[in-house]
User: Fold Pyridoxal phosphate-dependent decarboxylase family protein from Nocardioides caricicola.
Amino acid sequence: MTDALDRLRTMQEADLPVHGGRTLAYVFDSGLDEVDRVGREAVAAFAASNGLDPTSFPSLLQMENDLIGFAADLLDAPAGAVGTVTSGGTESCLLAVQGARDSRPEIDRPRMVVPSTVHAAFLKAAKYFRVEAVIVPVGPDFRADPAAMVAAIEEDPDRTVLVVVSAPSYAHGVIDPVAPVAAAAAERGIRCHVDACIGGWVLPFAQRIGRTVPPWTFAVEGVTSISADLHKYGYAPKGTSVLLHRSAELRRPQYFAYADWPGYTMINTTLQSTKSGGPLAGAWAVVETLGLDGYDRLARDVFEATDRIVEAIGAIPALAVVAPPDSTLVAFRTDGSCDAFTLADEMAARGWHIQPQMSYADQPVTIHLSVSAGTLAHLEEFVSALTEAVAAAVAAGPVVVDPEIAAFIAALDPAALTDDDFDGLLAAAGLGGGEGLAVPERMAPVNAMIDLASPRMREALLTAFMDRLQRPNRG
Assistant:
């Protein structure tokens, strides 16, 4: 009989590598074997513990309070600040929106004001909690436009329950002007959330090691809550984020309690009820292992890697950084001689995963990099691979979508996409059809086709594709 662990290891061979600093999206690698070991062992030790009832598992309560205390100090939180450990950035963002909505039960149709670069998690929250999202275009520097944000608030301040800014935004790696937006929100009695899911555990250390960082923490008056992920630049195992509130009063609407049923009285601090203690223990163990000095060292590594990547991109004529990064996220674009989707394929062929970002409004396709501390040791390899990949992409030329397929995509209605329509697109993209899906090694032709579609059509296509992927293995 084949051992299940052997089978797991075999299946995992097809996955992107999570160590080695070569996967520049989705995962964050400290490059430290000891950190990985401590995190894994802590997750395993507490995998069966249940965070539903901290009175039954007081170790989990202690670890959560320790992590919140550490984060509160990092983020300049006042003495009365409180927080919650969640399952990730999306849950932290969802709870920020839910808490703001439920703090104003008298409002029938609540709204929130967000920049167009806000993370999609907030639009997910808008859908789930029926909060109208007022999306405000950003300025030419890709940062939230304070005047435009204030104007959007003023369109209906009585229904506005939340304003969101990013530190940094995912797509471009720049920090929004938090201070003027937070001040405008505070003046009108509106909550202001800073989405620092990807920056919250690295920007404070950037400042500690002497880098200039625009103000964004609780030191900014008017900021009422901040989200920061431990499983990003905290380098903890997946499944942990923190959501901090300036006061216990601001957090209270986040809680769910229910006693009017025959079972136990339920009290939930997050969207989940039962939740494994493993991720919490993994995060606590990693933070305890690294401490402030360890994170300082990792910050030096990741910012050196980021600076050197930006310099390398600037030295390649076909590439240009979209905006000088405020943190560890780099977005760059290609010129007409180099196709971005082909470049991503060429990098993958050389063992590097970089993330294409589709065109948006008047902005072209870009490439996103989430740089890790573990990438620094492989910088020369990255620069060499990027140089070779650009040359190969230039030689290959741009991907051209067949005009008939382009016309077919343009004629489709995303609200009425049928199985036959989707099968035709799958076949055209070389992904198979019917019940069989075959993802090609090179994704440039597929991405080029998807990029022609409107955002709503992209959503419909990806939903249909995911539906086909998630079918049971039976028999």
Remarks:
- The chain is about 45% helix and 15% strand.
